[in-house]
Specification:
Layout: E1 17-20, E2 23-31, E3 40-45, E4 56-57, E5 60-61, E6 71-74, E7 83-84, H1 85-93, E8 109-111, E9 117-119, H2 125-132, E10 140-142, E11 148-150, H3 155-161, E12 167-169, H4 178-185, E13 193-195, E14 219-221, H5 229-236, E15 244-246, E16 266-268, H6 277-280, E17 291-293, E18 321-323, H7 332-338, E19 346-348, H8 360-370, E20 376-377, E21 380-381, H9 384-404, H10 418-423, H11 427-434, H12 439-452
Parallel strand pairs: 7-11, 10-12, 12-13, 13-14, 14-15, 15-16, 16-17, 17-18, 18-19, 19-20
Antiparallel strand pairs: 1-2, 2-3, 3-6, 4-5, 8-9, 20-21
Helix pairs in contact: 8-9, 9-11, 9-12
Length: 454
């Protein structure tokens, strides 16, 4: 049987990725079938509905699929095996006289609320193309969705013609392995950001070794790869200077201490299956981490058990920004716990039950008052005047509770209960900063709070 080759002469082999009418799949079988002539590919499609069976033909299993309908046999000439990275760059960014030269076609349309597409006129496309067509000056390259399979026979051309690429997006392409990715990056000595999301890249033995071709990469996107946390850690060992890791929409459940991520400053775990804050605390020793994104997981509460309320935790010593949108946080004590962090400046916490405990304005006031270092709340800056107002309102709002808990305007008569201070750990700071409010002010604010509660 003759090898099936691409237009550039490279061979399409087992486990290579192919495309047919916009549907991608992996070649699991190459050969002949009984009672037929010529060669067939056995392909497992990414979309199981595209297939017809589980890799069987007339009672014999030729390859295996994860779904009972994920496989089919197809003639080699009907699939697209892709083209090299350099040809893709030249096709997208090379000089051309077309009206939309150098512009990604998908970007020429906007979709309104009724999902109707409207074409956008791109002014100056020719000028953009003229600038981009100087391939040796390209710094950012986006090849998302193109049929790039690897470096192919054009490695020297890639190396010679695009030496200044710093950001490369080869997401949703036809690259089939980390070896294919490494052969591309080996030709890009200045590469800092790599996006391989939406690809099928199996973890193979030896993939946990420091690889010279990845030694310049500081930012890695591996979204929608079906990776577990263990597989993510294995992958990251190939990237010795990694600073930012985006691994959204994967299969992350149980987290463990990441020994290979000491230099990490940003970690994005959005839309995984992290079940609790206990798991998140496994990352607490990441001493350089300043941004942690945990949107759309299953977190119900936040806590730092190493210190009591009012003290500073040793966990996440450099964390400045925390995003926990679309979780299940419902109690104010979780917000109290966030005040234990040494440097927290930003919180994003929309679409949690806690946001429904009062009006949006009141919830924001509470967040600002409870977290002393907060400078940005749900993407809106916190100014000093707002902070002062929030803290004074907090004093007045919970003043009656403080009095009932043994509090007193005269310090020598104050016997505030430990239970109250645990629930309101910053209250004593507010008293020291602003003084105790008058009883009439506390009563008025208490009534206002009832009006604001939902």
């Amino acid at each position: 049987m003759r090898d099936v080759v691409r237009n550039d002469g490279s061979v399409i082999g087992l486990y290579h990725r192919v495309d047919h009418e916009g549907f991608k799949g992996s070649v699991k079988f190459i050969g002949t079938l009984p009672d037929t002539t010529g060669s067939w590919y056995g392909v497992e499609w990414d979309d199981p509905s595209r297939g017809k069976h589980d890799g069987s033909y007339k009672g014999k299993q030729y390859f295996h699929t994860s779904s009972s309908t994920g496989g089919s046999f197809i003639r080699p000439k009907k699939v697209d095996g892709g083209y090299s990275c350099f040809l893709a760059i030249n096709d997208r960014y090379g000089k051309t006289n077309e009206a939309h030269a150098g512009v990604i076609i998908e970007d020429l349309f906007v979709v309104d609320g009724h999902k109707k597409q409207t074409k956008v006129e791109m002014v100056g496309a020719e000028k953009v193309n003229k600038k981009q067509s100087k391939l040796d000056q390209l710094q950012e390259v986006v090849l998302r969705g193109m049929s790039v399979y690897g470096v192919g026979p054009h490695g020297s051309e890639l190396r010679q013609n695009t030496p200044n690429i710093e950001e490369l997006d080869i997401s949703a392409t036809l690259v089939s392995s980390w070896l294919c990715v490494s052969q591309i990056t080996e030709c890009l000595p200045k590469l800092k950001s790599l996006n391989v999301s939406d690809n099928v890249l199996p973890i193979i033995p030896g993939a946990d070794k420091d690889m010279p071709c990845f030694r310049t990469v500081e930012i890695l996107y591996i979204n929608r790869m079906h990776y577990t946390w263990k597989q993510i850690l294995q992958t990251c060992k190939m990237f010795p200077v990694l600073k930012q890791l985006h691994c959204c929409f994967n299969s992350v459940e149980k987290l463990c201490l990441p020994s290979s991520l000491e230099q990490l400053t940003l970690l994005n775990l959005e839309s995984n299956k992290v079940p609790s804050w206990d798991n998140v605390l496994q990352l607490a020793s990441l001493s350089r981490l300043d941004t942690l994104i945990l949107n759309d997981n299953k977190i119900e509460n936040i806590y730092f058990p190493d210190v009591p309320p009012g003290d500073t935790t040793s966990c996440f010593p450099c964390l400045k920004s925390l995003s926990v949108n679309y979780n299940k946080i419902s109690e104010w004590k979780s917000i109290n716990e966030l005040n234990k962090l040494q440097q927290l400046e930003e919180i994003r916490i929309v679409h949690n039950p806690i946001m429904d405990l009062a009006t949006p304005e009141t919830v924001r006031q509470m967040l600002v008052a409870k977290i002393s270092t907060l400078k940005m709340c749900n993407r809106t800056e916190v100014f000093e005047d707002e902070r002062k107002g929030a803290e004074i309102d907090y004093l007045k709002r919970f003043g009656p509770h403080w009095l009932k808990a043994g509090g007193h305007q005269e310090e020598d008569k104050d016997q505030t209960s430990a239970e109250f201070l645990q629930e309101h750990p910053r209250f004593k700071q507010f008293l020291k900063k602003y003084g105790a409010p008058e009883t009439s002010e506390m009563e008025q604010k208490s009534k206002t709070l009832k009006d604001n509660l939902i």
